[in-house]
Request: fold
Amino acid sequence: QVQLVESGGGLVQAGGSLRLSCAASGGDFSKNDMRWFRQAPGQERKFVALISPSGGTTLYTDSVKSRFTISRDNAKNTVYLQMNSLQPEDTAVYYCKMLNYWGQGTQVTVSS
Reply:
């Protein structure tokens, strides 16, 4: 059974940075796309970024392009989300996803 554990969230001022991590176990991490989503209070969960199994292809939602970077370390079964120039509208619970499995989420709060 696949387990995903996110970490790295926290409280940061606008303009600051955070790096989220998602450690996977129980599945074939190196053969699967990995995705980050986020869910703000009262809103639906939305796609943020995707990385292909080799890391050679990445996709981002428009609102985070040039600010966020997704990466992965297949030797560590871990995917990362480097978030720079954070804004209050980035406040949300951030989730990673592999196949149909979700992590428990990590809270990111950006103060103005």
Notes: The longest strand covers residues 18-25. The chain has a mean pLDDT of 97.
